[in-house]
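ESCALATION

Customer reports they have been waiting on this structure for their group meeting. Please prioritize. Original submission:
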Amino acid sequence: MPEQTPARAPLHFNAFVMNTNSHIHHGQWRREDAQQTEFTDVDTWINLAKILEEAKFDAMFFADVSGHYGDSDADYSVYLNEGLQIPSNDPTVLLGALAVVTENIGLATTSNVFQSHPFQFARQISTLDHISKGRIAWNIVTGMQDNGSRNYGMPRLTEHSERYRWADEYVDVTYKLWEGSWEDDAVIKDRAGSQYSDPDKVHKIYHQGERYSVEGPHLPSPSPQRTPVLFQAGSSASGRDFAARNAEAVFLGAPNAEAARFQIEDTRARAVEAGRAAGDIKFFQGLSFIIGDTEEEAQRKLKEAEEYVSLDGYLAHAALVDPDGRVYPPETPLKDVQTNTRRGFTEWASKTITDREPLVADIAWRSNRNNRIVGTPEQIADQLELWQAAGVDGVNVVNWVIPGSFQEFADKVLPVLRERGLAQREYTPGTLRQKLFGRDRLPETHPGARYRGAFAAVPATV
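Update from on-call: job pushed to the front of the queue and completed.
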């Protein structure tokens, strides 16, 4: 008998969105079919959540920012004119509404380590995990705007590597609260004995660190996942180190499949060095799609989308600032750039543009023209097979318009992917971590797991 080809694992699909008017593809909000202009209306998101859940998307992944991009001391009207991530609303609050109108789809929020105290944030996430019955994920970010830092009382954005040191302590506090403060059987609900929880099984954590002092105990009881599924998007060397230690899923913005392969293999190797298994991390590539029933239709739709492109928006979004917070002009060679933000993007451009001197403007053009696939559903499926062959586990689908981009992907592309075994037909029951990894809790190799039982010797009477 001929050898059978091993069945391929389905790709995972997240909707990569933001609670704002213009997220990634700037200028598209002006289209008549663009409902992202109504992002303040909760029904916009409820409708999208139902479309995505019907299509068996794995998660809605919400990006977020703590301030506007660019030079904090300069005119920022371009962001307001474009609606470019300002105004924007808090995604973490929105997840509570979406959790009660969905049953299976994962709900991921982005929260910066300096925008919320870890004790308060851990409580919010545990509450959402309870409400959603275990479908919450956290995208861990360290910030990239001087203005965002100023909004939280700092003079400027903390130095790049120091931000990851800060994140290390931040996640350490949350792990202690989520994993170690409550034992699994602490809640007993003993009506006859008048005892809701067993005091001997609820513990203070007494964290004392460089930035935080947190006594505990964690106020919520253990949620279905305890720790949310952990996403991270840093592509710099420091970011990959942090992901190797902490992330369960990494969001990639690689310009091509081979660049993705390098980052995946590098991060997996770092994870093994950190004592984790290479398979403990899944990788999601950000891609947008122009879909046509024929190649000609796809090219026509691409031309229509490009008529709405705002180059001002892309340039403003991709702004690189110097050590003094001033924005580099687009024609600046990347070799002359010294920046505390977007390290991964500048590293990518410096390595992959070899036929000429890479410029700051290349970061903006990349956002517009790269990471998009144009073609028929079959051609798109062919391209996604190449990304999967490079090691990608899933796709963060970037919209042009809401909800149309996602509805079209669901109606035209997902059926072809299912025929090839590249997309799930039904949800796996259980939590988001169960759906992605086949388990509800962090694996023993994860640093958060070391706090299980770590505080059992600290009695509630101390």
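Sent to customer with the following note: The longest strand covers residues 282-291.
Escalation resolved.
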